[in-house]
Amino acid sequence: MGHFVITGGKPLKGEISLQGAKNAVLPILAATVLINGTSELHNCPALRDVTASLKILRYLGCKAEQTGDVVTVDASQITGFEVSDDLMREMRSSFVFVGAMAARCGFAEITYPGGCELGARPIDLHLKAFRAMGMKITEEHGKIYCDARRLRPAAIHLDFPSVGATENIMLAAVFTPGVTRIVNAAKEPEIEDLQNFLNRAGAKIYGAGGSEIYIEGVPSLKSVTHRVIPDRIVGATYLMAAAVTRGELLIRNIEPSHMDGILPVLEECGCEIGYPRDGILNIKCKERMGATDKVRTLPYPGFPTDAQAPLMAMLATACGSSMITETIFESRFKHVEELIKMGANIKTDGRVAVIRGVRELSGAEVTAGDLRGGAALMLAALGASGTSKLHKIELIDRGYEAPESILASLGAKIKRVE
Ligand code: EPZ
């Protein structure tokens, strides 16, 4: 339960290499359960959520190791189909293991993920889809029991383009003879990365990245090697860190085409963004940021909800007023009261936040309420005058690889105190 001590006011300068995408590697780790052989994943970030997924894989009987940015999983001997309560509590996105366990073992057992820092986090879309595929699902004492011995191809229309539900259906349908169709699928790049991983292992999935995905059942999947896509949210976070501190940053191993919903907002606020060549992006923000009158978080390719909190930290010292509407999650403004402690002028009403830019924030003692809110407070502290203490940084470690080392390499005064 460590904390960061951050002394702000230093413009960030330099270059970083972007980590692999947490939200791509987590569903891909679940997908390794489907493979009667070995999966070798490159560009995997060292994160608490990745460690939690490796624990689940070992609990299911797999061999799973991470060495540097390479994760190796041998799922030839699966001995179970149940995710224990404590493993589920450690990471609610473990629910994505259900589809893979069901398809590989014919059964899956897991506790209800329950709410998290962002609100209720229901799984009704997952369960409705599984039932349409012929899965028999019973719920008792907070546990979910899935019997998937007789899956059938189905046409599934998602009421909302849920990322997790789209991924879970893809995983559950991989071995189902016939064609399973997802309509109104999530279009995030991480879905396409999951399709590419599975097809490289011998699956037949088409359409990921669009709103209709087709999964044609195959008998089995074989050993595979795959490189995970870059993390567009971590990339956006560091771009905004450069903006908050009026610095300049070059990012390698980035995929700008995954950031079409984000980069125009930064340019509207006055950042200069350049693409010197493939996989590289740079940003210069010498002056105080301008405001952006309205940003709504939307499913991809709209502005991503995961970048909402870092954006708010950046706008807190912009010149003018901005409005952010969080349309995806019901309670994703936990960082607001912490930013106000640092001198921000923010008013919220339900899912709408109005940010009146102030000239400067002041260092304060603040606490992360969730992963991206913690990242937002880190950014605010980097731009603030004076010193801040940021608690519950284990939440930041879930999604950001060695943030203090990366920021210190760019000139930030930041220290991790365990
Ligand atoms: C994924 O969560 C990401 N997590 C989230 O990133 C991200 O914020 C989210 O997608 C939206 O992009 C991972 O990929 C591991 P959803 P997921 O299902 O799959 C509602 C981060 O910070 N919903 O698309 O849980 C739900 O309540 C994390 O890296 C239902 O109503 O998101 C929410 O309001 C946070 N019923 C909305 O849909 C369901 O059955 C979006 O959820 C499922 C979801």
Q: How would you sum up this structure, described in words?
A:
The protein is α/β, with parallel strands linked by helices and 418 residues long. The chain has 13 helices and 24 strands. It is globular, with a radius of gyration of 21 Å. The structure holds ligand EPZ. Ligand EPZ binds next to helix 1, helix 5, helix 6 and helix 12. The site of ligand EPZ has 23 residues, from helix 1, helix 5, helix 6 and helix 12.
Overall shape: it is globular
Bound molecules: ligand EPZ
Give the percentage of residues in beta strands.
25-35%
What's the arrangement of strands in the largest beta sheet? 22-23-1-24
Helicity, as a percent range: 25-40%
Radius of gyration: 21 Å
List how many beta strands DSSP finds: 24
Distance between the termini: 6 Å
Low-confidence blocks of residues = none
Question: Helix count?
Answer: 13
What class, by secondary structure content? alpha/beta
Tell me about the largest β-sheet.
4 strands, mixed
- Averaging pLDDT over every residue, what do you get? 96
